[in-house]
Amino acid sequence: MESVAYRDQIYEIFADPNTEFETQIKQALTTGTEYLDLSVGFFTRIIDGTQKILYATGDHPLIQPGESCPLDEAYCRRTIEIDSQLAIEDTHASPEISDTAIETFDLGAYIGAKVIVDGEVYGTACFADTEPRDDSFDDAERFFVELVARLGGQAIERRRYEQELTERQERLNEQREIYRTVIDASFDSVFRLNTDGVFTYASEGVRDLLGYSPAELIGQPITITHPDAQTSEWALQNRSQILSGELAEAKDMPLKTKSGDIVYTDIRGVPVYDGSVPEPERSEDDIVGIQILIRDATERRQREGLISVINRVLRHNVRNEMSVIRGWADMLAEDMDGEQATKATVIRAAATRLLDLTESAQQIEENRDISPELEPTDIMPLVDRIVTECETRYSDASITVDAPDKAIAETLPRVEVALFELVDNAAKHGGSPGSIEIDVDVSDLQVICRIRDDGPGLPNTERGVLEKGEETPLVHGQGLGLWLCYWIITTLEGKIEVTEFDRGTTIEVHLPTPSRE
Questions:
Q1: CA 36 to chain centre
Q2: CA quadruple 90, 93, 95, 98: dihedral sign
Q3: How far is CA 87 from the centre of its chain?
Q4: For 102-137, how does the pLDDT look when each residue is reduced to its tens digit (9 = 90+)?
Q5: Furthest-apart CA atoms within the chain: distance in Å
Q6: Cα angle vertex 166, ends 164, 169, to 5°?
Q7: Quick one: CA dihedral 119, 477, 124, 30, positive or negative?
Q8: Contact at 8 Å (CB) between 74 and 126?
Q9: Measured between alpha carbons, how far is 117 from 152 in angstroms, rounded to an integer?
Q10: Residue 58: Cβ within 10 Å count
Q11: DSSP assignment letter at 317
Q12: b (16+ CB within 10 A) / e for 278-300
């Protein structure tokens, strides 16, 4: 199999939430030893200066589940100290591995990556062999090991979060099901009401959602599903809105089940017109009922809860600690001279980049909805705001715009986040002083926004991120920002194209128009 097939296999292993964590790790280690052609794979926990083998594959007597040793005697000691993977073809010839570790384990080849859980080093994911390796580990192999470590860490985070939910449920002594072990696709229930708010139809999905049979609801007022007066008040207000011909939507709306439990749902209500009246002639007087689409929001609420936990660690713990590091680096730079001051400046720059990385990571999580409902949106007000903001940030940059008064695309306002990232990147990394041109063209099928700069051009890795969303072992602040652009534009049914010139880069953002069908 090719390297891509092995990576896909790792994604599939960790994507199934029905599979036990132990099974996932063992399958990943087995896949890794086959792909890397190494005889040993192991997953460790490192705590209080001790390395413990949690899971292992292979017949090395000292690398078996339950075995432990001081971290100073382990091959993984150096692995957790560096930012990237540790890959050594011949450990006997490498200064990275201590003599004690070699004498104890006698491994010839080694590659490993640290496992991060909730922002802290948890352990390592490693592969090794008793014999040295003839060829160097290439980028695909390095990324594979990093992928195993990253997905393993995420699986542990998910397991911890699920345990947190379970404990919270036990404390509250609630009887309803809070989350599912897996939802392959959210299911919908459809209701119809007459203009007085009485059920006239309910789909079979209501059995799973609310515990009623369709027949039990027909003829009942919608208030039978309302847990409190506030919900009933919302329903009354939005019934009036729908009966006037408008759409009504709500997220996390509580509904009461037949047993009295509360479920949270996303709701969309639309008017039902008299079918005998032609569509162009319809008015609110022709509305004969209301159709309501209800989606169980359990999965989304759980996902948002997990995101909240992860972001809390990123935004609070990491940001606070890096702010301390940056503050001390500032003080050292002021107090020292020459080479020492330069080193302090390097520390401060690294801390600043990591702080920027947390901001980009948060934006990616905030824009991760993969199935949005697009709507006609004029992107020119967004472009104007972006230009104003970038001119304020980069006073030396020259930014010109060639665009019509309006440019209506089938998109969502969050496209502004992606466009800003591209213009900001051009201003930040372009020439000195930078010159940026923004052109917007509108056709029947698409809106194209071109961003030109006179900078040195994009590296191939970053171009691959923008155009194809390619993953590489190199992940840094700017690269994550470009990932954000790719993620937003592609989930809005758009695409990004990059053109290089002798001096400068043109990035085209293609967005569909409402008339494309």
A1: 28
A2: positive
A3: 28
A4: 888 989 999 999 999 988 999 999 999 999 998 899
A5: 87
A6: 110
A7: positive
A8: no
A9: 9
A10: 18
A11: I
A12: eeeeeeeebbebbebbbbbbbeb
Helix or strand run (H / E) with residue 489: helix 477-491
* Cα–Cα distance for residue pair 184/186, rounded to 1 Å: 7
pTM score, whole prediction: 0.36
Long-range contacts of 317-320 (CB under 8 A, 24+ apart): 317/119, 318/119, 318/354, 318/358, 319/355, 319/358
Burial pattern 6-19, b for ≥16 Cβ within 10 A else e, equals: bbebbeebbeeeee
pLDDT in tens, 360-414: 556 555 655 545 578 899 999 999 988 988 888 888 888 999 999 999 999 988 8
Q: What angle do CA 346, 433, 452 make, to 5 degrees?
A: 105
- Cα–Cα distance between 73 and 418 in angstroms, integer? 47
State how far the Cα of 454 lies from the Cα of 210, in Å rounded to an integer. Answer: 60
173 pLDDT above the threshold of 60:
no
* Residue 58 backbone zone (phi > 0: left; psi -120 to 50: alpha; other: beta): left
Partners of 448 in the beta sheet?
A: 441, 510
Q: How many CA atoms lie within 13 A of 170 on its CB side?
A: 6
